[in-house]
């Protein structure tokens, strides 16, 4: 029921894949990206965060940045660092972290499937972040970063993918950021391409795991191209966008933790105790062991907070751990109602560990930290199926898909 199709990838030549591949643009700030770009001329950050090649005083949203991204993409091809495939293909992308592999299929997905609700979301987007990627995709005339999608696994798809992996050598095989192993196989066999497309036609829905802003931006550029080229037809490349689709049973959501910079009143713990059973753990970091538990770091000590049953709603959104924290502590005690815009709260991905929470509180930049138990994949799919929206910063996926291994040309320039 969903439409996927192969595409003619622009991708690194084999011996440069590790050097070209970069962390996604949205997990690095401009300063971090500039440092990486200065020591690696091949880094895809020169395309995805092209402000690193301009005066640091220039805004990352200046039109010159998007033009520089397009120029750099063209130059990477002219220099032979990126090559353009002659024939459409699917690609298998396998990431292995801490001994746990997840194997996805790199495809083009349909903007119509998104507008018709067959590609489902679970987060809201921010307009300024959308506009940034719209301008980037528009200038480059390409999807430069893949969207991370998932689906309820199908044995037929798993069998086809596993057979190809077992019978063929990978195009790329390298270790990169955070010790993650990256392997890529190209599928060019016409019959396998047709079998995979047919198998996905039995998949009822795809779900955005990570990349809501990239999805909205890719779709809006595609719709813009339709207006610009009304005679192009439904098979035009701009009607599709770059994605990697993984079966949900292979994915793991990490915690997405909160740090808050607010005055802590003398009766704070007693207020927390109205909704949580509070247990002082001490100096040793406490990582929640199950849902409805929260680790809290305050004044050099860790506390275990266990939500009381009477404060946990039954609805699909309200029962999420991040929702319980919001409704019982962040809003009533701290007055933080809109965590997307309130600058008193910040977020720390689970990959950084509880040590980062301690550091941010101990250095005085924040007054209290909350370590969350992550939602499950079933939580995510249930929210999306119900057409609901998770609270911001609810999910953190690792490992991250690297950018630069695949570029999808919209072919309109």
Quick summary:
With 413 residues, this protein is an alpha+beta fold.
What separation lies between the terminal Cα atoms?
31 Å
Q: Which outline best applies?
A: globular
The radius of gyration computed from the alpha-carbon positions, rounded to a whole number of angstroms, is: 22 Å
Q: Quote the average pLDDT.
A: 95
- How many strands, what sense, and barrel or not for the largest sheet? 9 strands, mixed
Spans of at least 5 consecutive residues whose pLDDT stays below 50 are none
- Could you tell me the number of beta strands? 21
Strand percentage lies at: 15-25%
By secondary-structure content and strand pairing, the structural class works out as alpha+beta
Helix content: 25-40%
DSSP helical segment count: 13
Number of domains: 2
What features would you describe in this structure?
The chain has two domains: about 260 residues, no CATH class; about 140 residues, Conserved hypothetical protein from pyrococcus furiosus pfu- 392566-001, domain 2 (2-Layer Sandwich), CATH 3.30.1760. Helix content is about 30%, strand content about 25%. It contains 13 helices and 21 strands. Strands 1, 4, 5, 6, 8, 9, 10, 11 and 12 form a nine-stranded mixed beta sheet that branches. A six-stranded antiparallel beta sheet has the order 15-17-16-19-14-18, with helices on both faces. Strands 2-3 form a two-stranded antiparallel sheet. β9 and β10 form a beta hairpin. This is DUF1015 domain-containing protein.
